[in-house]
Each structure stands twice: as structure tokens, then as C-alpha cells.
Amino acid sequence: MEARTLGRHGPQVSALGLGCMGMSDLYGEADRRESIATVHAALEAGITLLDTGDFYGMGHNEMLLAEALAGRPRDSYLLSVKFGAQRGPDGAWLGYDARPQAVKSALAYTLRRLRTDYVDIYRPARLDPAVPIEDTAGAISQLIDAGYVRHFGLSEVGVETIRRAHAVTPVVDLQIEYSLISRGIEDAILPACRELGIGLTAYGVLSRGLISGHWSKDRQPAARDFRQHSPRFQGANLEHNLALVDRLRALAQASGASVAQLAIAWVLARGQDIVPLVGARTRPRLEEALGALGVRLQNGDLAAIESAIPPGAAAGDRYAAAQMAMLDSEKR
């Protein structure tokens, strides 16, 4: 497994990370045994970075990971945890809470659910507009000093927020959506991260399955699958976006890779400071994603891919309007 470093002074991690959200939430039902087997297969393949959130299934994902990781040396993997999203008993989204006391309370419960003494990277899931980012960063700095957290990360924030947080305590990585059809970070956010020595953990590299090569216009999202409300999966937008996938499919066939492997390989090729998170929920999907590590894209390959799917080619926003409005990273 190739290794990469998160940021200028962050930890060394595997070139691919495993995003665990779908094992508990937002993509319909998942098989518990297969989820655990997939985590085991990822670790055995050399993946060391596991990403979760305390609100994924309202704690379910953390407890699932604790079960999957039982008996394994704690220094053989890194846990990246998001916090702050508030949810009701019905799963409804209620906003964000990143006050210092909320940060510390959330971590206390996370440590208990994960059955660990510390998390490797702790990050607010979104910017809390009611709390200065300096206050949140300061609370995490205190947790680092106390040994409960190893590193501070951010998620879906813009350049100003990144700079303000980094001035309080070093940020090792920004977790943000980045894929062939979500390239908005390239204008300002990615250059700022590189200037400051902050790494990137890229989620949504397959745009929630849209550019995986496995989605079709006739496929219906499962019950409680948030893609039911995602603009890119709706009507004419979906037809337009699947036509882009067909372009990618032709290039993938020519290179001997699957569509998903080519899309992941493109993200891997964007820089050694970028670590894609793959949201595989099953061992076959994980195995396919791991195959991207063997796809070596030359300059001509990258040019052909970016010509087939240029920036801004996708139809529809990456989130519904209400969620887009909560993204500090989308503010101009």
C-alpha cells in the first residue's frame, strides 16, 4: 500500500482511506456482517485511515467500527471523526453545535463508543455559524494537549475559515468533496491548503456512486437513501450526468480499468497531498476501489479525461439547496 502524509506535518496514512458512513446511514440498509468484513478486508489490504462521524446512525457507525477493530493494535489504524451535526430521534437534521463545551462532550461519548483512549483526527463536520472557528479550534487544541486527540482537521469550510482555524492550532487536513464532477475547490481552497501545508481527504470521489459506472437511469435509490433528494440524481440532470459517465467508460475500457477505478485514479493523480476516501460497503466494491492504485495515468491520459469531463460539466448541485446553504466551502 502506498503511503501519503496528511499535510506538511501530519500523520502518514494509506493512499486510500475507507469512508464508513454508508455502513450505518444515508444510503439505505447495509449488512452488518458484510460491513465488518469490509473493514477487515480494508485493514488487511493496508488501508490505515478509517473515517466516521458521531452522527452516522446516531452513534451506530462508531460502535460498528469498535466491533470491527476489536483486538487489533491501536497503532495499526487511524480514526478520523467528525462531530457537531445535531439530529433528532427521527434522523432529522437540526443544525450544528461546535461550542467548546459541546466539542468536549461529543468527544467523551465518541471515545466510549469507539472503545479507544484517543482519536487521531477530530473535526467539526461543518462550520457552526453561531460559534467563532477560533473557539472550536481552541477547544480541540486543549484536547490535543490532554492526549485525547492527536490532530485537528476541518470539513467543508472556505479559505477564510481555514486560515483563521490554522492560526489557532495547525490543521492537518481538510475533508471536502472532490471528484471529476465536483472541482470547485481548485480555484481557491486547494491552493490555500497547499500554501499552508494542509492535506486533503477527498470524499465523494465517485459522487455517491453516480460516476462509479454502476448507476443507471432506471435505478431507484433505496428507502432512506439521501440520493432520492440529490439534484444530480434527478430527471434530466441524471440523464446528462450519466452521459458524462459514458464518456468516462470509453476511456476506462481503453485503459483496461473500470469506470470507478479511473475516477479514483484521477483523484489520486491530483497530488500526493490528496487522500481519496472510498465509501465501499462491500468487499467486491472495496476490491474494485483498491484496483485504482494500479492505474497509472500519464499526462495524455489526464488530458483526455479532463477533456471528456471538463470542470463544471455536471448538471445539478452536489447537495439539495438547504444543505448547500450550510456549506461554508460554497460561500463566495
From TrEMBL:
InterPro entries given in the database record: Aldo-Keto_reductase, NAD(P)_OxRdtase_dom_sf, NADP_OxRdtase_dom
Any GO CC annotation of this UniProt entry: cytoplasm
Keywords, sorted A to Z: Oxidoreductase
Residue span, NADP-dependent oxidoreductase domain: 16-308
UniProt cross-references to PROSITE patterns, sorted A to Z: PROKAR_LIPOPROTEIN
Source organism, top-level taxon: Bacteria
One of the record's GO molecular function terms: oxidoreductase activity
A matching Pfam family: Aldo_ket_red
SUPFAM superfamilies attached to this UniProt entry: NAD(P)-linked oxidoreductase
Gene3D superfamilies: NADP-dependent oxidoreductase domain (3.20.20.100)
Matches recorded under PANTHER family: AFLATOXIN B1 ALDEHYDE REDUCTASE, ALDO-KETO REDUCTASE YAKC [NADP(+)]
Protein name as catalogued: Aldo/keto reductase family protein
Organism: Frateuria terrea
Taxonomic lineage from the root: Bacteria, Pseudomonadati, Pseudomonadota, Gammaproteobacteria, Lysobacterales
